Predict the 3D structure of the following.
Amino acid sequence: MSGGKHLAKGSPKPTLPDDGVLRLFSMRFCPYAHRAHLVLNAKNIPYHAIFINLTEKPEWLTEFSPLGKVPALQLPKEEGNPALIESLIVAEYLDEKYPEVPLFPKDPLKKAQDKILIERFSSVVGALYKVFLGSTEAAPDALTEISKGFDIFEKELSSRGTPYFGGDKPGMLDYMIWPWFERTEMLKYLLPEKFELDKERFSKLVAWRDLMINDQAVKGHYLNGETHAKFMKARRDNVHDFDMLV
Amino acid sequence: MSGGKHLAKGSPKPTLPDDGVLRLFSMRFCPYAHRAHLVLNAKNIPYHAIFINLTEKPEWLTEFSPLGKVPALQLPKEEGNPALIESLIVAEYLDEKYPEVPLFPKDPLKKAQDKILIERFSSVVGALYKVFLGSTEAAPDALTEISKGFDIFEKELSSRGTPYFGGDKPGMLDYMIWPWFERTEMLKYLLPEKFELDKERFSKLVAWRDLMINDQAVKGHYLNGETHAKFMKARRDNVHDFDMLV
């Protein structure tokens, strides 16, 4: 809908087509928006993607996202064409509204336990971004924190005894943490010591990652580590090369 | 179950009684734990409360709450007696597991919109705590931020045209933001200028607050502004007087 180009300040507001199709306001390299793409793909829900320049935001963005963040999901079939924000809220909405391909477990306890793991993953996110963006001095401590965080998920996958957190196929927990695992692949391009997941310590996670890369929903929005690293390297120099792939 | 006293380092682990009743690990003045008390009360779910000293934490706390936070809700009827953490996850679990008194709207869109408002309330929380804990120099900016945050909820209540956010009775949104509205009453004891909600700018919210104070679930865990202020004044001097009410 924005043809992959990131709409910036001064861009005319994209007109709402009369097709009733969901509109996702996104940014190609945003891991939170990535979550919404994955859920939409996994559920085979058609959608228009509108990419947003997050440093020079279009004036009309706050009509859809009051805090100017992505993802925002506009619902053209609903009265007033409202938009939802916050990746986890968008994900759970989609899971409830489009139950044909369920992603969260039906059992309230199992669902709550998966949500707690998603929440606990946020400590890994903080450490990862320190390394992605940060100086190499900060890296050793942050790498330790990342590995400790991954330990929780390795242990969990091991105790579940299934290839995916969701069982025989990816569920909500898999998709909600995937954007950062995909980005972990950029560490071998960003760090001098070419960091990779320890294949013994993280044997289950490594197998899981290899399966996830071949999942249809993941493939639909996948970028390799080298591409993620290229965007991040520019960002380290304060260059936001949103349209790098267009 | 802890008799209102906050269990500290060295306290023996409370034994699990054979009654199948939920156990809530809480701290009497914690607004996040407050949310869990409200949901349990609103749904008439019996529970044991175990209060925790959060500065000198009991060694066994991490068995129930891996990050040592409250609330944590232990579920003795479930296999392995698991515990859930994170106030919003606990609240939504209870709403799904005990649907007799529903708190979230059934409609996925309305539910998502209420969750977004709960999320947006967190900017108010940050500003409130600046004032609760902070120097009077920080106060004017933070008070402006609080009022701007409250504007969103005033407008929302006005557009809903109902006494509560949940309609004719309080729903999840009402209970999730209430702990901080209850604590806003302490501002008249903490600030020299005796801050109160502007009765014209916030006419709907003032009427809502007056109704909420008389709600049974709220009454079951209510403390007045003076009591909250007393706890907070001590905390400003780095004294955590957890057992103030025991």
Remarks:
- The interface with chain B takes residues 66-67, 75, 78, 82, 84-86, 89-90, 92-93, 96-97, 108-109, 111-113, 115-116, 119-120 of chain A (CB under 8 Å).
- The longest helix of chain A spans residues 139-160.
